[in-house]
Write a structure and sequence with these properties.
alpha+beta; two-stranded antiparallel ribbon
Length: 53
């Protein structure tokens, strides 16, 4: 079961388009990679490498 991680200041910012973009701080606090190709993924996941296979 996934744990609930409360969102705090510094965990995200709003992009110019109005989307919420999670920071590396949030990903590390969450504790795992969701494999969605997040912009600030600290776990080294690369969605493009999966597409080329």
């Amino acid at each position: 079961m996934k744990k609930y991680v409360p969102i705090e200041e510094g965990d995200y910012y709003l992009t110019p388009e109005g989307y919420r973009c999670f920071t590396e701080q949030y990903h590390l606090k969450r504790g795992y990679c969701c494999e969605s190709g997040c912009r600030h993924c600290p776990y080294g996941f690369d969605k493009e490498k999966l597409k080329k296979k």
